[in-house]
Amino acid sequence: MSNQLELRHLKYFLAVAEELHFRRAAERLYISQPGLSRQIKQMEDDLGVTLFERHNRKVLLTKAGEYLKKELTITLKNLEHTLQHTKLLHDGKMGDLKFGYVGSAMQDIIPNLLLAFETDFPNVVFSLKELDNETQIHDLLSFDLDLGFVRLERVPKGLEIQPILKENFCLVLPKSFEVSSKSLKNLESFKNESFILFDPKYSASYYEKVMQIFDDSGFSPIVSHNTIHAGSIYKLVENGFGISIVPKSLAANNNENLKFIELDKIKQKTTLSVVWNKNNRNPMLLNLLEAIKNLTL
């Protein structure tokens, strides 16, 4: 194999492998399409393999190309993290960690985790993003996140999942509703109310569990609004657009115009879990996972 293969060739290959279109890949890389085609051909010649099947209207990866794409994606992300970590060490930091999370995880779980973790690792840079479950899974697989906080029952191959909090659901009502936890017999009395729920895109499994609550209550809900943000749910309930059901951890809300009733007599519970990529080589991740094990919830 020729030693002329450079890092830019690998980036060119990944762009074409992801786009499966030479023109779009060239535009993404800000180079000419003929130039990109020549670079890919040179790479194939240097490796002595065919990476793409070229047809008039489409480009496909060969088996060798599929393997190279998978391995290079991991390798280049690890290289990027290594260089970032090197710069952080130079700046006096111990490392960095990127979190994705659903909103309920920010009520207590993440703040308590960060407080515990920073006792032993005070010089770590954290990046926190509120994301739906599907986006977190995508970003964990592509190594754009180190850790996710999700409400999912299962995750794709290559990811690890660990439940950290199992909790009840809560009914969310306007303060004006004359019902309490003692007077509430079942949810059937709300069958004519509009419901504001987390969008199925937030988590299909979570949405299905909420639908099971209605099934067991003997009615199909009138769903007036779907959203992925608890703040939007609360604002809509407060203004009389409907009522809602949320995880108990989201009931820690200081809005005096809302009423939360814990649904502790139904069988459905919701679980918050942490997820990570088992191939992630961020040196701080193992320390964080150890801190999670020791976290009292």
Automatic annotation (TrEMBL):
Quote the PROSITE patterns the UniProt record gives. Answer: HTH_LYSR
Q: Name one GO molecular function term.
A: DNA binding
Tell me which residues make up the HTH lysR-type domain: 5-62
Do you know which InterPro entries this protein is assigned to? LysR_HTH_N (IPR000847), LysR_subst-bd (IPR005119), WH-like_DNA-bd_sf (IPR036388), WH_DNA-bd_sf (IPR036390)
Q: Which Gene3D superfamilies match?
A: Periplasmic binding protein-like II, Winged helix-like DNA-binding domain superfamily/Winged helix DNA-binding domain
Q: Which UniProt keywords apply?
A: DNA-binding, Transcription, Transcription regulation
The family database entries (Pfam families) matched by this protein are listed as: HTH_1 (PF00126), LysR_substrate (PF03466)
Say if the entry is tagged with keyword Ribosomal protein: no
Q: Which top-level group of life is the source organism from?
A: Bacteria
Q: Which SUPFAM superfamilies match?
A: Periplasmic binding protein-like II, Winged helix' DNA-binding domain
Please indicate if the UniProt record lists Plastid as a keyword: no
Gene Ontology CC: one annotated term: protein-DNA complex
Name the protein family: Belongs to the LysR transcriptional regulatory family.
Q: Which PANTHER family match?
A: HCA OPERON TRANSCRIPTIONAL ACTIVATOR HCAR (PTHR30346:SF0), TRANSCRIPTIONAL DUAL REGULATOR HCAR-RELATED (PTHR30346)
What's the protein name? LysR family transcriptional regulator
| Species this protein is from | Seonamhaeicola marinus
